[in-house]
Amino acid sequence: MQAIPSHQLTRPTSPRPSLTIHVVCAWCDRPMRGEPQRAPAAQVSHGICHPCARQHFGIVL
Fold it and tell me: What is the pLDDT of residue 48?
């Protein structure tokens, strides 16, 4: 078996699947930035919504 020289290796040309990240409030779990409800398999990131920032920390965003 012969090794393939590195200059002959190519990457697959198929596009990557699109990654959807939904941002939800870490305190109340509501979607942020007017996002629709998240799909069960979607990636999730967390932030804090305006009402929770005000209620829990006294911060007005």
Answer: 94
Tell me the pLDDT tens digit for each residue of 2-22: 777 766 667 666 666 667 788
pTM: 0.59
Q: How many CB atoms lie within 10 A of CB 49?
A: 20
d(CA 12, CA 33): 35
Locate the domains of the chain by residue range. 20-61
CA distances from 51 to 2, 20, 24 (A): 64, 25, 13
Q: Is 25 left (phi over 0), alpha (psi -120 to 50) or beta?
A: beta
15 CB-near residues (< 8 Å, 6+ apart): none
Classified as helix, coil or strand, 53 is: helix
